[in-house]
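thread: overnight batch results

M.L. [08:02]
morning all. the overnight job finished for the chain we discussed friday. pasting input first so we're all looking at the same thing
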Amino acid sequence: MLNPAEYLKQERAAPFRSEYFRGEVFAMAGASFEHTLVKDNLAGETRSLLKDGPCCVLTSDMRVRVNATGLYTYPDVAIVCDEPKFEDEVFDTLLNPRILIEVLSDSTEKYDRGKKFEHYRQIESLMEYVLVSQDSPLVERFLRNADNAWLLTEVKGMDGVFEFASVPVRIPLREIYRGVTFPEISPQASLGPMR
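M.L. [08:03]
and the structure it wrote out:
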C-alpha cells in the first residue's frame, strides 16, 4: 500500500504509466493503433480550433487527480481553459480540467462508462465528459447541467458532426476517424441471434 506521495515518486521514475487509488497502483495497458489514431485525430483537430484562445489540449501524458476521491489517472485527452491548477511544483498532475475525453476499448469501456465516470463527476471544474468509440463512428458527450445532472448527446455515422458545448469546437466524425478501418460486421451478425 502506497500513499499518494510515494505513488507520485514511483510514477515519476517509472517507464510506464499507472493509475492510483486508495493505496493501490494499477498498470495501464498499451493502446492499439486505432485507439491512438482516434485520440490523436480528435486532439489535433481540437487543438487547432482552440489555438487562439485560453484553452489547452493535453493528451494522455498529463495525469489528472480527482481531489474528492483520490484517484490519479491519465485521460486520453484533457482540456483546461482556466488557469491550470496542479498537485505540486512538478506541474504534472492537473486538478481542474474542463473537459475529459476517453477513447473506448474492449478492456476499458466498462470502467470508463462506470467507475471512472463516477470519479470524474466529482471534479468541480468538469463540464463535459466525452466517450469516443474506436470500433464504429460514435461519439457520446455528457454535459453537466446547472442542477448537476449529466445530459447525454450522441453523434453517429461518418456524416455526423461532433460539437463540444463549453468550447467553440465542431469536428466532423470523418476527421476524428480519419485513417481508421472499422471491423467488418457480417450481415448475419447484424441481425442478432438466430431463433
